[in-house]
Amino acid sequence: MALLTPDEYRESLRDGRALWYRGRAVPDVLAEPELRVAVDHAAIDYEVGHDPTYRDLAVAKDPESGEEYSAYYRVPRSTQDLLERSKLIETVTGLGGTMVTLIKEIGSDALFALERVLEGEALERARRFAKHCREGDLAVAVAQTDVKGDRSLPPHQQADPDLYVRVVEERDGGIVVRGAKCHTSISANAHEIVVLPTRAMGPDDSDYAVAFAVPVATPGVKLYISSYGAGERNQFEFPLSSRHKMLETLTVFDDVFVPWERVFLCREPDKAGALALTFVEYHRFTAVSYKLPLVDALVGSAALAAEMNGVTKAGHIREKLTQLVIYAETVRALIQLAAIRARIGSHGIAYPDPMTTNMAKYTFATRYHEAIELVQDVSGGLLVTGPGGEDWASPEIRPVLEKYFRAKAPAEDRLRLLHLVADLTARDFGGYHAVLAVHAEGSIEAEKMQILRAYDSGPALDYARRLARLDGA
Which of 104, 153, 174, 367 measures 20 to 30 Å from 328, CA to CA? Predict the structure, then answer.
């Protein structure tokens, strides 16, 4: 058992994995500059384990052997464990410039869900796999969202049977799977991929009720990397997206053989829905935890822009900053409350309160675009009309910019801040965040459904009956 160094993590990705990017095969993820940015960003999760500043938060110790391992893989047993996990995720995302690393966060979410839902031999397989990930200090992706095709139809009624990942053959040594998952974060720079069902399944969907894990370099696993956010980035003009990036893939399983030891669910539709929802309980908690640096960045950048522009005393500016503070602190308070309200599930594993977790995610998602509008309003039109990095680097042009873009702060400070705000809210990095706010970790409608499902209406109904003096009360 050993904590990988960032360089060991990088080198471990040279394993012959099948990657495609911008229309061509990529034999080495480290040799492709646009993809290397994402690998270096993800390596933050390995840096914190060796940095004395963060070791107490990032590293856990086995109580029996005394060996150290990544705290992401510590199974939560209490409110305190969940609060510390949330703080770790928040801290690392803050180091990542508001972009989550996710290479251990999402995988451990899946491992916790597997242990809570499974029983018998399947549970033992999941535990052995979790030990493998912990002892190897591995980066683990989760492929859950099937491409789905016609969403009005269940899996078995799709015109093409491969639009949900399915079992096509059972052998003595394992199963063969086929199909595709989309929106698979960090798979191109992970070591393992855990595949989970995306929804509840009926008896006719039995072939699709499957969960398993495979190394990324497994024959037949093919990753088609999204080109969103592609292109060279000037660091003056793109202070965040030039250094921080997360890769998403269409993840295709082309008759992939999976040994039984790595199969956690096979043709068991009665467990598919429970596994899907249990994973979401953890992953939405992770999601809001990694949104906290983002909402803090919105508050801080708007306040700094107001100061540099000399408008902090204006009443409407103070109102906008107040609304941003209320938004950020409401999200933070809700996710902390989800941990405080933690419940203990099967096998003694703690999980965050589902209702409060979904309230936190719903509040973040439904008010995010309003928050962006407030930040842009405070910052001003230079977000999209200001000079670029080449202009600032020009000896001839820079004196002009220094003269005319000075405000209550020097032109360089002001322009650097406005480029930060533009990168965060007005360019493709900001667009990425905006779409994630609505769709990542489940839709807004899914969160509303979970809030209502998780709410215990009994006490409120009983109270209303007493007040109305019903039922002889």
Answer: 104
